[in-house]
Amino acid sequence: MAFITANWNPLGEAFYRKIELYEMGWSLRDGLKECLVAAAPYGGPIALLRQPQRPSSSARPQLEIYSSSGANMASFPWKSGPVRQLGWTVCDDLLCIQEDGTVLIYDLFGAFKRHFSMGNEVVQNQVLEAKVFHSPYGTGVAIVTGASRFTLATNIDDLKLRRLPEVPGLQGAPSCWVVLTQDRQTKVLLANGVDLYILDNTSCTPVTPPGLSPQACSIVNMAVSFSYKYLALFTDSGHLWMGSANLKDKLSEVDTKVRTPPKQMVWCRRPKSQQPSVVIMWDRLLLVAGECTDTIQYTLDEESVCVAELDGVRIIGGSRHELLQEVPSACQDIFKIASMAPGALLLEAHKEYEKSSQKADEYLREIKEQSVLGEAVRQCVEAAGYEHEPETQKTLLRAASFGKCFLSNYPPEPFVSMCRDLKVLNSVREYTVGIPLTHTQYKQMTVQVLIDRLVYRKLYPLAIEICRYLKTPEYQGVSRVLKHWACCKVQQKEEPDESIAHAVSVKLGEAAGISYSEIAARAYECGRTELAIKLLEFEPRSGEQVPLLLKMKRSQLALSKAIESGDTDLVYTVVTYLKNEMNRGDFFMTLRNQPVALSLYRQFCKHQEQDTLKDLFNQDDDHQELGNFYVKASYKEKKLEARLSLLQSAVDEYNKAKNEFAAKATEEEKKLLRFQRRLDEEKGEALLGLSLQETLHALLTSNFHKQAEQLYRDFRVPDKRYWWLKLTALAEKDDWEEMEKFAKSKKSPIGYLVCCLYNLYTMLFIQLAT
Amino acid sequence: MSAHLSNGRVNLNILREAARKELREFLDKCAGSKAIVWDEYLTGPFGLIAQYSLLKEHEVEKMFTLKGGRLPAADVKNIIFFVRPRLELMDIIAENVISEDKMHSPRDFHILFVPRRSMLCEQRLKEQGVLGSFINIDEYILDLIPYDGDLLSMESEGAFRECYLESDQTSLYHTAKGLMTLQALYGTIPQIFGKGECARHVANMMLRMKREFAGSQTQILPVFDSLLLLDRNIDLLTPLATQLTYEGLIDEVYGITNGYAKLPPEKFAAQKKQGEVGKDLPTEPKKMQLNSAEELYAEIRDKNFNAIGAALSKKAKIISAAFEERHNAKTVGEIKQFVSQLPHMQAARSSLANHTSIAELIKDITSEKNSLYSFSFHVQLTTLHSSSLPSVLISSEAFFDNLTVEQEFMTGVDTDKVNTYIEDSIAQKDPLIKILRLVCMQSVCNNGLKQKILDYYKREILQTYGYEHMLTLNNLEKTGLLKPQTSTRNNYPTIRKTLKLWMEDANEQNPNDISYVYSGYAPLSIRLTQVLARPGWRSIEEVLKMLPGPHFEERQQLPAGLHKKRQQGENRTTLVFFLGGVTYAEVAALRFLSQMEDGGTEYIIATTKLINGTSWIKSLMDRPEAP
């Protein structure tokens, strides 16, 4: 504890500290000399491309991948073309940008995933320099070619190449350049000598940084901050200019008195920085320059690489891995020598308490008198998060816990969640895992992403433990990890299908919300169709099974799964697929065995393909439906002859279906139609299409009594209805004579009524007449 | 606008809010001004979720009805199609998109499928070459729509036809999905009961989906204690009968669609403001929203129509008494209090006036004289026995005669003979649907008609209304509404007696049994519900076996800690889902059961669609297009 400030260096008002993260586990004979190095931010992996010791045509460079602690994850000789640049994507994939513009993508374990090209013109002109950058849209790649032209791809997962406009007067590569993301646009800022240009999609604009010292003849290096908000320029006169990335404001300018162009320059900031600074690296020197005129200088004893982080800079050397950062104000308050901040007092109080000294009470009193105990606890909790050493964390948390005892209403959440976070962080910082995340980075990247990263590293047990410990909902936590595990498992070529399927089901059985279809899809991608089908059996969501089954050409199985799901749209999808895949006979046979699919297909045909519908009925010998089909068709037919022949077909079908009633009724309909046509032709009536009743009515009102009688007999109209009809018709046209005849002629079932009515009306008639 | 949804036992406004949120989210996805092109069928159901004001807040400036040809001009950035996933609609959309004027500033196209997107439809759009023109293709999951405080409807007109005639179970899939949504909002329903093939299918899908969603379920204390799924085809009789509650009669006479009734305007003319006296009588039908938001309507809608007169006059007295209060108001404070109540009283008064008008209208319609014929029919009817006739205040003969026949069928009188009233009604060519309702009813009450009688009716119908109705008759036979008697045994009387479907002394004014909703007939579906609650279905195994389809009980595991501890005397809540439609009278009967003091169960009702005999039969008719 006493030497906690030993590695602090003041820079203006603020302090900077350099802490060792790891002693590197790798054994590199020449350190990082002659290496192409790429290290991913957020404590990500490190890739090295080592040039062969003796340059000869046969010797190949070696590509090696290490964790942040230097544990080897992959190592293989590089057999492709010459590499210009290495870089990591947000998903921990390695990008190797070759001279010819091809970008090869490898996973963490050196397995080749895919490749893409940065454009055809690059093949000739070659890539001079390349950069990998991250933006809200994903991971991007920018290159500058031998023809001095820039090409950008903002997101390599959705590749859209953009060739940027020409830069006037630029020959070869610019002296330095960076990629900026501003206003949802990706731009390139480049320096050609002392001239600065901003290149965007459409134009190349010359810009001048405000207040750049006039001695400079050339800008030799530049760096943009992690958030793309700040820019640093280094001139050949040894001046470091710092300002906003939009080149509107200047923060400061420092004369470093070193005129050699630096090897690397990165921003070193943290959220709520007091003294943002830039770290500049030369062969033997590391210099931290901020807004004040002072600088901090460290001697470097080995070849190193700087990695910009959200809250500092990591320095990776051949033997050490260090973190350089501004000391957070909470830590400053507590640990600064002779600090009287509440947190510092509380820590002191707790120390005395541990020693069973009464001084503890004095310190506590002092804090309580100022009523800043809450603030003291908060400071201790916060500072614990910023400390790397578990011992220091514990001391601070114990002090916080001690202080909490004297507070009645202090909310427990911050303390509890900090304890949890630190437990997780310490476990991933562990040497064997090698992810040196800070608390700030962890909060920024979220647990979800951390779990993903662990999964990419195949650290499944740790990932599951963390999920369980943080009580992440199974769906997003344990189940997701298990799914990745299973996806990895199915790729183990040496194990037989049976045992893999068994292992997967045993392990995943209890977990909720597992997508077996994704695992099966992976198995299928690896050419293990049988395994995929076995795995699909475990999938509870039929909807998920179907597309994959179709892809694997197991259409019959897909159909039954679709039906099982109850989702009719899914059934339709499979049916449409089958229809295109199979010949008609087989297709119909398949449907026949699946009544649900068949009736859905019938519905589809009814609206879309009438002819197919007929074929379907024919195949099933469904004469009743065929009859109905012809009847329906007859109504769409304009010509009477065609209509009659369709009706005849219907009659035949109804007969085959042994539906006497329908056959007879259809016969009758034909008869009626013929009758109507004859009468329309002979007498010029317009009867066609009327019902029998309407026809009779029309005949009776038009005085075609004989024809009406004939219809009445031919169609065996029940007497009662006929009398009613006649009565109505006669009454409608006041034909009382005919009615009298009718009333007296026959004994009808309603005869007496007709008489009554007749009498009634005659009476009325007489009354009216008189 | 939606307070009435949250007044019930279960706050259905949560469901409505969830639906509104999703709609807003979609609209915001299409940035800028927009025009909506509506599948006309959807406007009604959407009206229950959101008013135009909500759309307007999200920059919807124009609305059109989907039709072929070119889209109307509108100076908007986005065109959004709100459609059901139907192939024929896709063709229209494709036509719209293709004929879009390319010279104009391009408009962005979007599709919102209701209730679900469909690969089949997207495939069709692809074939038409327009799929790429759409920026957003999304689905708006609108399965169960809150219709009233205790009523949910899917507003799916064709559900019965699809399920029972065409074996297309799409609507059942939507039902199961809708019930899953409901469970996501109101907790897992621990018990599921059901009767019928479709009920079984829905329950199976629900259990399956639950397994699919395992792990993602939310921890909500269950609001519903049980779910009862009922197939419409276990009770084909009830919808055929004429509903005799106030709401039921409004539906029978004028039809209620999506919660609105269109009424003839004449009776409402008097309510206009005094300044407008000189104007002509309104000719547009008066559109009235009918739900429990209106206090008076909530009070009277489920009463038997015969009790409406008394209820209205009692209400009138209360209201005029309330207005009289103003004479007693002496002090400034009293007057102030009176004035503060004035808006509420005025609303009550206008509500009373409206319903008096509606009641009069219905009385007029149901007592419409059919001069010449009704006279003659009366002569014949006098010979019929009419012991159990309700004391209908409606004196009309046509309506009365129809009712008498219905009640004869329901009590099992002469169901095995050709009915003279039906015969005469055909002869005078009464509306076909009326005839079909009666014939089907006779068939259902007789467990099928003798082949000879069936053929006679069919022939009469074909000769009178046209041979094209053969397809409709065929449909009715397929769904079992009309059928030839296969066994000599008619089990309807057994069912009637065991379930007490006919109550001789139904009390219409102060009902003590659900049979009041049909003035004597207790709906079978509701009896089943009632028996399930107490004493349980085990007591009626025999009857259940006579009704089609299996009956079943399933239990759904609740997550630990969510088991409800029932307070002493606390009622159970049961969701009753009618697959294939429910009538307003059945809803009234369930509400009656909920309100019974010693009932012990409160019911929330859900259905694919609110139906009545006419709309139901209509949905089963086949109309071949004329050349």
Automatic annotation (TrEMBL), chain A:
Domain Vps16 N-terminal span(s) in chain numbering: 5-416
Record's subcellular location: Late endosome membrane; Lysosome membrane
Pfam families xrefs: Vps16_C, Vps16_N
InterPro entries (alphabetical): VPS16, Vps16_C, Vps16_C_sf, Vps16_N
Topology versus the membrane: Peripheral membrane protein
Keywords linked to the UniProt accession: Coiled coil, Endosome, Lysosome, Membrane, Protein transport, Transport
Gene Ontology BP annotations: endosomal transport; intracellular protein transport; vacuole fusion, non-autophagic
Domain called Vps16 C-terminal: residue spans: 514-753
One annotated GO molecular function: actin binding
Membrane spanning residue stretches: none
Coiled coil: 637-685
GO cellular component, one term: HOPS complex
Keyword Membrane among UniProt keywords: yes
Subunit note: Core component of at least two putative endosomal tethering complexes, the homotypic fusion and vacuole protein sorting (HOPS) complex and the class C core vacuole/endosome tethering (CORVET) complex. Their common core is composed of the class C Vps proteins VPS11, VPS16, VPS18 and VPS33A, which in HOPS further associates with VPS39 and VPS41 and in CORVET with VPS8 and TGFBRAP1. Interacts with RAB5C. Interacts with STX17, MON1B. Associates with adapter protein complex 3 (AP-3) and clathrin:AP-3 complexes.
PANTHER family, sorted: VACUOLAR PROTEIN SORTING VPS16, VACUOLAR PROTEIN SORTING-ASSOCIATED PROTEIN 16 HOMOLOG
Role noted for this protein: Plays a role in vesicle-mediated protein trafficking to lysosomal compartments including the endocytic membrane transport and autophagic pathways. Believed to act as a core component of the putative HOPS and CORVET endosomal tethering complexes.
Family as reported in the entry's similarity comment: Belongs to the VPS16 family.
Protein name: Vacuolar protein sorting-associated protein 16 homolog
UniProtKB/TrEMBL annotation, chain B:
GO annotation (BP), single: vesicle-mediated transport
Protein's membrane topology: Peripheral membrane protein
One Pfam family it belongs to: Sec1
Record InterPro entries: Sec-1-like_dom1 (IPR043154), Sec-1-like_dom3a (IPR043127), Sec1-like (IPR001619), Sec1-like_dom2 (IPR027482), Sec1-like_sf (IPR036045), VPS33_dom3b (IPR043155)
Cellular compartments annotated: Cytoplasmic vesicle, Autophagosome; Cytoplasmic vesicle, Clathrin-coated vesicle; Early endosome; Late endosome membrane
Primary subcellular site in the record, as a coarse category: cytoplasm
Keywords (A to Z) from UniProt: Cytoplasmic vesicle, Endosome, Lysosome, Membrane, Protein transport, Transport
Superkingdom assignment: Eukaryota
Cellular component aspect of the GO annotation: autophagosome; clathrin-coated vesicle; early endosome; late endosome membrane; lysosomal membrane
Protein family: Belongs to the STXBP/unc-18/SEC1 family.
Function per UniProt: Plays a role in vesicle-mediated protein trafficking to lysosomal compartments including the endocytic membrane transport and autophagic pathways. Believed to act as a core component of the putative HOPS and CORVET endosomal tethering complexes which are proposed to be involved in the Rab5-to-Rab7 endosome conversion probably implicating MON1A/B, and via binding SNAREs and SNARE complexes to mediate tethering and docking events during SNARE-mediated membrane fusion.
Protein name: Vacuolar protein sorting-associated protein 33A
The species this protein was found in: Oncorhynchus mykiss (Rainbow trout)
Organism lineage string: Eukaryota, Metazoa, Chordata, Craniata, Vertebrata
